[in-house]
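Hi there,

I know you've been waiting on this one. I reran it after we fixed the sequence typo, so this is the corrected version. Both the input and the resulting structure follow.
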Amino acid sequence: MTTPHSVSPHWVCDTASLQAMLGAMADAPWLALDTEFMRERTYYPRLCLIQLATDRASAVIDPLAVADLAPLAEFLGRPGLTKIVHAARQDLEALQCAGIRLAGPLFDTQLAAALVGHPDQVSYAWLVEHYCGVALDKSQTRTDWSQRPLSDAQILYAEEDVKHLGRLHQQLQQALLEQGKLDWLWEETNPLLTLAAEGDAPEDAWRRVKALSAQPGEVAATARVLAEWREKEARAADIPRGWLLKDDVLLEMARRLPENVAALARIPGIPAPTVRRHTDALLAILASPRTPLPASPSAWRLTKAGQKVLGELQDYIRQQGEALKVSPTVLATRRDLEQLLLEGMPARLRNGWRAAVVGSGVEKATANLDRESLRQSAQG
């Protein structure tokens, strides 16, 4: 089997069929969208399938076979056509890497579900069973989507990932309208489109390094530079960050500051290819003087008094969540509340709809607290 037309007449593997499919979908009131991609051995996601559905038809596009995706990019870049996606962030990144940028509005069914009271990481399969009464097949979850040809079962599985999004959109949008929360959803999804278009800056790569901000100032400063170097090198070589340096190795290097290749090679867990190919660059970074960073909120932990206040704030958020029919972690996470107590009001609670529904409440509850009595050194 080379093409799966026996089960899907909407299998799109050439430019002519792509253009025909887009023509058939041109007047649709909304467009459901999903992707399949692989990135286990690469930095950038490799787009392997694009699934589309409207109120009349569905299609599975093979971006590895279609020579020119420009017509699709133009179609998805049309403003005003609502794109329906579940957990959109990674799909947007995969499309962006293939030169396809979506225009809004973007309706994310996972975010919408959380705003009407479901868990904030609710799965597509759960929503489909809950709202549509359909139990999805899960047999293809570990498929290598880059392999060709794809089987009938794989194509059907991929189509199912978009066939129910329209119905989910209809029911979730109605619930959002009834609860006065549709604008909340747009406020959540609009930044996703901007993030996908701009990407993360390499100088911000340190934010991904677990426990970096809890390190002493000198170590944190060096680790930030190493994280930026790793990000640029991983992008240039299109390999996973961890193939260069895992987070724990990066931090250990920043602590030890090896001065020669032998000392560098003794860092536990450092890959031999990294030592061979990047010794000069790494030693230059480690030898460069830099100003220690000031202590960050992660360098502090809550005292017993702080934990008590945190519990009271979590109770308040749970009560607000119940009253508003919103998952409490969507209103404010534990991390949001810890940051509030350790440093001050986080941007998530200071701006937008959250500021209106919970921001003023937590600000009032903490206005007269002595922050110094609530925190102590994380190393103490």
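Quick highlight: The domain at 298-377 is CATH 1.10.150.80 (DNA polymerase; domain 1).

Best,
R. S.
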